[in-house]
Specification:
The protein is mainly beta. Helices cover about 5% and strands about 40% of the residues. A seven-stranded mixed sheet has the order 1-7-12-11-9-10-8, with no helix packed on it.
């Protein structure tokens, strides 16, 4: 439902991709680059991970502008299928906060979040025994926009 870029190297370095997905994407979901989009000079295909041991994981975080008259809440924002999505490359040390609906499982401070093949949600694990390219450590449980959320720090990218 929502994401907060607490400390992102990409925010200052411009390390951002423009992606287009063939499904609706909520800000805070994790995706990977599935190739280049035909007919677009710089856009990439935003896809769910297929090999978490090799795929670079990017964070969806577009400006949250809600145009629909019946929706006025930032939590209503969705990146629509076929529309451009802002994708951020992670760097070790980045900190991000996402609402808990974007996490598979119940996050606990000190545990880890890792990607899962075929899913755009990070999964909670107790340790880093899984061999994934990306991993983040849960720093704290907080609330953003009134919703339960998890703040994490990137350990591996």
């Amino acid at each position: 439902m929502a994401v907060r870029l607490d400390k992102m190297q990409a925010s200052y370095s411009g390390n951002i991709e423009i992606g287009i997905a063939n499904f609706d994407v909520e800000n805070g979901e994790v995706l990977t680059i599935g190739g280049l989009v035909d007919g677009h000079r710089e856009a990439v295909i935003a896809a769910t991970p297929t090999d978490v041991t090799l795929d670079e994981i990017l964070l969806a975080a577009s400006p949250e502008i809600v145009y629909e008259k019946d929706k006025h809440n930032i939590l209503d924002f969705v990146n629509k299928k076929g529309e451009k999505i802002r994708l951020y490359h992670h760097a070790v040390g980045n900190t991000v906060t996402v609402t808990d609906n974007l996490i598979d499982g119940t996050s606990v401070k000190g545990q880890y979040l890792i990607p899962v093949n075929g899913s755009s949600k990070l999964k909670v694990v107790a340790d880093l025994s899984d061999n994934t390219r990306f991993a983040a450590k849960v720093l704290e449980k907080v609330r953003i926009y009134g919703e339960p959320a998890t703040r994490y720090k990137v350990e591996k990218h």
